Amino acid sequence: METRKNFYDVLKERGFIEQSTNENSLRQLLSRQKVTFYIGFDPTASSFHVGNLVPIMALAHSQRQGHRPIFLIGGGTGLVGDPSYIDKTRPIMSRQQINQNAQSLKKQVSRIIDFEKNRALFLNNADWLVKLNYIEFLRDFGVHFSVNRLLNSESVKIRLKKGMSFLEFNYQLLQAYDFWHQFKNYNCLIQMGGSDQWGNIVAGVELIRRLEKKEAYGIVFSLIKTAGGNKMGKTEKGAIWLDPKKTLPYEYYQFWINTNDADVVKFLSIFTFLPMEEIRKYGKLKGFAIKKAKEILAFEATKILHGEEAAKKARHASDSLFGKDKGQGKRADLIPTTLLKKEELKKGILISRLFVISGLSKSVSEARRLITQGGGYLDEKRLVDSNFLIKKDSFKGGEITLRAGKKIYRKIKIK
Fold first, then answer.
1. For residue 374, is it left (φ>0), alpha (ψ between -120 and 50) or beta?
2. Which of 280, 221, 239 is nearest to 58 (CA)?
3. What is the CA radius of gyration of the chain?
4. Element (H or E) spanning 137, and its range?
5. SS3 state at 175
6. What pLDDT digit, counting tens, does each position of 47-100 carry?
7. Does residue 239 lie in a domain region?
8. What confidence score (pLDDT) does residue 156 get?
């Protein structure tokens, strides 16, 4: 009899799992022994964004349950490009750029997953894929793949409508080989990934069964969407990055605290480590009281990524602007700041242009629209003229504060 929920139950209860191979056998395996998992990550960017947090948090949960996660960077498959559910060929990157991105991504994920003493492994599939002999690979592994089955894969069907290169067509074979290689060399029994990876994962499970006469398993995660139907992590201002240089801890905190009421319990379940018993209590809060749950979500999510001290500073900065400390200016130094040279202010700068320079708006026309509709503020005074000219004498104490909407602030300082 189980004394506690196993890892599969944890993921299921918290809302991660969309489907898996052989659920009953998988649950029994996780009840009997500690297991090595892996998830592959695309190295095409130097930073993860919030949308990448689902698989990262799943690996972190596996480690907390005593299992060993493998964080696999697709340095080799990145040279091919995953065609899964995209409608055009991905640009081919150089090995140098992929390696640089891989190191940056490892640094980010190391804040959430412990790689010390082999508690987790960081691997790059370029280490084995680039050494493959093509003829041997086709003979030993290609023979186990049905072209008919590949053509019936949903991700391949979508790409075939637009045109698909033979290079991309090889992707599923390579990912299946990844699973088999880690099964053989690291006793990796489970691959996890997004729902778009189901076909690739099943191909790996099948390859292991054919070659090794043993069972491996696959788990795919649900696509996380907001209550408004938007893809997780996509905002009007662009992606919310895990790199603190691209998205400051304060901005990261603000992203979470602005969560839709209907998403709070779901996001607490997936993006924090709080016990489900506690999360369910927050789910019972109604009206203004749910603000407390949002504050906990923002603090916990920021703490996981940026550390407790950064989370406390972000919370204090938020309180100084919106909460009980409003008007007292506590920790307002954490608000994103833009520096201007004195000479830039000699002729003056249009306030709408300054909204663009500070990152509050994507374009001057967008800034003008914001101001015209009453959503632009200068030092807490609502702006009415999008052509208002900001000069040096506009700065009191060498700085001004801009605001877009209710909660997005920027400081402008003179160098």
1. left
2. 221
3. 25
4. helix 134-140
5. helix
6. 999 989 999 999 999 999 999 999 999 888 877 665 554 545 556 677 788 889
7. no
8. 60
